[in-house]
Amino acid sequence: MNTATQNLENDHVYILRLTDVMLAMVEKQSVEIGDFDLVINLIRKFADGLHHAKEEDLLFPLLGEKGFSPESGPVAVMLHDHEEGRQYVKGASEGIQKFKTGNSAALQAIYENMKGYALLLQGHIDKENNILFRMADQVFSAEEQQNLLKQFAAIEGNAEAEFNSEKSIQKVDSLAAIYLQ
Ligand SMILES: [Fe+2]
Ligand SMILES: [Fe+2]
């Protein structure tokens, strides 16, 4: 990965795989609550904790310096998507807690929020890969891309050991081996 945008696109490969797992779990009407817990952890710690942190703390502010406001236009849309995603995760997580205390009707809320998140993120990643990152590639210098990459590494360095990028990718692949046959 030579550029910061390529680093983010590589994260997207695994986030998309996770969303495919989520849709498959819903489709199969899975009741494997431990797997749902793992999905939520992967979203919170990898998709949001690492990937969205790289975007929100570093990429978007640098785009802001280039004239792309966080208040309107494409960056604002991306921030709004991230926030909407967090609401789905909250809904799914609350459903999981209710299901664990014996409320089987909560399964429906888990499925709806999982599906909502997966479809939202698939559209979101498509917009980033095809529009936002291509804009970034046009306005960032090679040096700026390298600086961003170094700062990404610092975020990765602070990750929880069990959910750093490498471990998270392994966990996504283990779920994919179960659900994406
Ligand atoms: Fe994003
Ligand atoms: Fe992204």
Task: Briefly say what this structure is.
With 181 residues, the protein is an all-alpha fold. It has helices at 4-27, 33-65, 74-100, 106-139, 142-157, 165-179. The protein has a single domain, classed as nmb1532 protein domain like (Four Helix Bundle (Hemerythrin (Met), subunit A)), CATH 1.20.120.
Structure explained in plain terms:
The chain is mainly alpha-helical and 181 residues long. It has one domain (4-179): Up-down Bundle (Four Helix Bundle (Hemerythrin (Met), subunit A)). 82% of the residues lie in helices and 0% in strands. It is built from 6 helices and no strands. The protein has helices at 4-27, 33-65, 74-100, 106-139, 142-157, 165-179. Helix 1 (4-27) packs antiparallel against helix 2 (33-65) and helix 2 (33-65) runs antiparallel to helix 5 (142-157). The protein is globular. The protein starts with a helix and ends with a helix. The model has no long low-confidence stretch (mean pLDDT 97). Bound molecules: fe (ii) ion (2 copies). One fe (ii) ion (FE2) binds next to helix 1, helix 2 and helix 4.
Architecture, CATH level 2?
Up-down Bundle
**CATH third-level topology:** Four Helix Bundle (Hemerythrin (Met), subunit A)
* Beginning-to-end CA distance, first to last residue: 29 Å
Provide the low-confidence segments as ranges: none
Total individual domains:
1
Largest sheet at a glance? none
| Helix count, DSSP H or I runs of 4 or more residues | 6
User: Quick one: how many beta strands?
Assistant: 0
The CATH superfamily is known as nmb1532 protein domain like
What does the average pLDDT come to? 97
Share of helix among residues? Answer: over 70%
| Structure classification | mainly alpha
Q: At the first level of CATH, what is the class?
A: Mainly Alpha
